[in-house]
Amino acid sequence: MLGGMVLLTKSAINSSFLTYINDIQHSTLKSLQPELEEFYQEQGGWGSMGPRIWHKLLKRHRPERILNGSLSQKPHKKKFPNHNERRLDDRPPPFGHPPKRKGMPPGIRLLDSEKNMIIGPPKTKLHAFELPLRVDNNIVGYLSLDPVGTIYDELDVRFTQQLIETIQIIALVGLFISATLGLWLARSLVRPIKKLATGTKMLTAGDFSARLDIRNKSEFGELAKDFNVLAETLENNEQSRKQWIADISHELRTPLTIFRGELEALKDGVREWEPKTTESLLNESLRLEKIVNDLYELSLSDVGALSYKKEAVDIQRILHISINEIMHEFKTKKITLTIKDAAQKKLIVFADAMRLQQLFCNLLTNSLRYTDVGGRLIIDIKDAGENVKITFDDSSPGVSENEIPKLFERLYRVESSRNRSSGGAGLGLSICQNIVAAHQGEIKARESYLGGLCVQLIFSKDKQ
User: How far is CA 87 from its chain centroid?
Assistant: First the structure.
């Protein structure tokens, strides 16, 4: 770009300087015009115009004299000497040759009214500039000037060369500075890109501990922050995946171990076949089936493959149906279940009745499983304007504040024991969360005023 600028500037300087020289030559003609018109009027024609008078006129009107204003000085007494009066030291150069004096126009000539040559150098093929000479509003002749196509004066040539050399030096200095800054900027830009590329390769290779140490406020700094968040998320997901696999393996291994132990005992004759053995194997098979079914439903809900047939339903009626199905187990465990409903008022929501019943059964089973014998469960249904709020409050044991955010994680259980003595696999609340999300509702957990856990559901009413 700098090279192109230098070439264009060089061309522009030469062109502009030639225009400047031609403008000066034109001013020479205009300053010479009144004297020639006066000469014609005094002499009555061009017959007395000789080389001596012609070159004396050109000498007096050379460009440097026009520029410094020397023509404004008082003229000689004898303005137009006779062409026969010659002095040895004032002889003109050979006819047709430009004067050797610096600045004299080389292509100026005098023509008559018919544009025939009177005096001056021979005509060239260049398109000459012609200035008419008038006496009494009649054209009596022309001043002709060939345009300057090249810079012929030594000082002018030296001036343009020095100007172009200066521009070239400035261009080289600019090139050096821009190249230095460009290399520095390129390195500063490439360095974080290389770090990002290295970190990306580490993530691709499965090393999710990769982090970028780019601490600036540019777009690269923001990109590094996003990269670190992505890496941290992937690392957490990988840990969750490993924990998920370990927990599933444990959940499945427990009933399978019991199965194997019971069958080996029967095979080795350690135990006799009796109804209790059958019941134990059946319970473990049911437990194993429940875990597999929960895992299957959870995987379907994750990929959005669970089918939902939504319609306008009374959510209060569905809740009562779910309670009636499990009320016997609450009585068996001596847990008091109290319902605070909205009297006989219908609370209509747009939902899948079967999935809502599954949601309520999971929450009721969760309270039944993790509430001490003789405890309480209070279900409160409220009409909250455009929403319906349902709250499940159970009694002790409670859940610590730190553990509440983890309740909806898969296979998470509050108790530290790994034998799952309470019978759950820790998938119920995760399935509940997915069902609520599919109905554009909300599910929250907090400490209950009864000493246990409070789970609150919020659904939008059907506006139709």
Answer: 85
